[in-house]
Design goal:
With about 150 residues, the protein is mostly beta strands. The chain has 2 domains: about 35 residues, no CATH class; about 80 residues, Immunoglobulin-like, CATH 2.60.40. The chain is built from 1 helix and 7 strands, in the order H-E-E-E-E-E-E-E. A hairpin with a 2-residue loop joins strand 3 and strand 4.
């Protein structure tokens, strides 16, 4: 029995080149017959959009990368210090219109929950969606902000 090893040049790989990790991924794909799909996707059809959380002077800001969605596709909730964002991208059905079809964009429901590091004022939370980025601004509650204490000379 002869094993034939097939490798793709780094510039043709469907994943960023991470040296030995990319090679291991290619071997697992070959071994499990995933035909180019990342290992595990046939078992776990899960997608979680990339997110950033940062704090400015008065707010916690959460940004999620969710291209191709509409503002109506999101469900955002805040409960006991945990921000939950879920949604489902809906793409037009191109399969009926094309032959030789390939899709690498995820279609399906996602859910992200983030434990917030500070107490926020839930009545002033704002969300905006522009250019594929969902931005959620959570004003830090007054009681959670640092206070400057002046020392008196009594």
């Amino acid at each position: 029995m002869t094993l034939i090893k097939t490798t793709r040049p780094a510039h043709l790989s469907s994943r960023p080149a991470f040296g030995a990790f990319a090679q291991l991924q290619d071997e697992l794909d070959r071994l499990f017959g995933a035909a180019g799909a990342p290992f595990g996707t046939q078992f776990f059809n899960v997608w979680a959009p990339a997110l950033d959380v940062y704090e400015d002077k008065e707010n916690l800001v959460v940004k999620l990368e969710v291209p191709g969605m509409k503002k109506e596709d999101f469900n955002i909730a805040l409960h006991e210090g945990v921000l939950s964002v879920s949604g489902e991208p809906r793409f037009e059905d191109r399969r009926e219109k094309a032959s030789g079809y390939r899709s690498e964009r995820f279609e399906g429901r996602f859910h992200r929950s983030i434990a917030l590091p500070k107490v926020v004022d839930a009545t002033r939370v704002r969300a905006a969606y522009k250019d594929g980025i969902l931005s959620i601004t959570l004003p830090v509650a007054e009681e959670a902000r640092p206070k400057q204490i002046v020392v008196s000379t009594e």
